[in-house]
Design brief:
Length: about 290
């Protein structure tokens, strides 16, 4: 396994593999890797000839006051995890090279980045799509792996790939969870033991919402959201729910009337435990 820091070197390596007919699988991450990231890397290993993982805490997707400076970083630990997952190349660039002085170009997917996460993190997805497109241009993947844990991110990237006719196939991996159901996240490291225990309620609440919808016990999203909010507040008094949203999974449009709805339903939420903001979601077919 090799660590590549220079953009031009990574491009040359990827170009070489493309020319020799090898399939490149790419897993973009911000590091501080856990089993969720490993699932993506192992799937990439399974489906590609060459696996490239990037480790880059992307400054443009953090707003001032968010946790960019505090975001956990441990390259040595990540290096060993990548190695154990069969990664061939870690792309580990410097922010100054990714965004040099006089950097002016951004990619934005309109509409679907203004709701859900985008409502509370208005510039976030512009940073995500910009860096992902740059990383695609640098690592030149045939396949790119993303986690369903970040459901809106998946939908936005899917839209960008389709709208801009990018020659990359999107692969989505299921959310990997702790035994108690809490979605694995690099940010879980901010949580106390007690908070980790309590935060398991988020996944339980999402499953409860799914049950209520599938059993036909809830006719509209407004009542459902009220019920789920109550469920979370009762079972996790130290949480502070920021939003719950019921949408489709492609354009992330609100679903208000659940009774007659047919198709995929995505329920997403964000909640604070102290200063730590957690997100989770559930996707199912009705
Ligand atoms: P991050 O390092 O948080 O930017 O995540 C990098 C990739 O790993 C993204 O595609 C995430 O959706 C994915 N990911 C993060 N946590 C999980 C998880 N618990 N299960 C599956 N994928 C995940």
């Amino acid at each position: 396994m090799k660590v590549i820091k220079e953009i031009s070197a990574m491009q040359e390596i990827s170009e070489f593999y493309r020319k020799t007919g090898k399939k490149i699988g790419f897993v973009p991450t911000m590091g501080f890797l856990h089993e969720g990231h490993c699932a993506l890397m192992l799937k990439a290993r399974d489906e590609s000839d060459i696996v490239v993982t990037s480790i880059f805490v992307n400054p443009t997707q953090f707003a001032p006051g968010e946790d960019f400076n505090d975001y956990p970083r441990d390259f040595t630990r990540d290096y060993h995890i990548c190695k154990s997952c069969g990664v061939d190349y870690i792309f580990y660039p410097n922010a100054k090279n990714v965004y040099p002085n006089n950097y002016y170009t951004y990619v934005n997917v309109n509409n679907m980045t203004e709701t859900l996460e985008g409502k509370y993190r208005p510039e976030h997805f512009k940073g995500v799509t910009t860096v992902v497109l740059k990383l695609f241009n640098i690592t030149k993947p045939h396949l790119a792996y993303f986690g369903q844990k970040d459901a809106q991110q998946v939908a936005v990237i899917r839209k960008m790939i389709n709208d801009l006719n990018l020659n990359v196939k999107l692969r989505v991996c299921e959310t990997v969870r702790e035994e108690n159901g809490l979605a694995k996240s690099s940010r879980n490291t901010y949580l106390t033991k007690e908070q980790k225990k309590e935060a398991a309620v988020l996944n339980k609440a999402l499953n409860e919402a799914k049950r209520l919808i599938l059993e036909g016990n809830t006719g509209n999203a407004k009542d459902l959201k009220k019920e789920i909010k109550k469920y979370i507040e009762t079972n996790s008094p130290n949480s502070s729910l920021q939003y719950i949203a019921v949408t489709d999974n492609i354009n992330l449009e609100k679903i208000s009337h659940l009774k007659d709805y047919k198709g995929d339903i995505l329920i997403s939420l964000a909640a604070y435990y102290g200063k730590t903001r957690l997100i989770d979601n559930i996707l199912f077919e009705k």
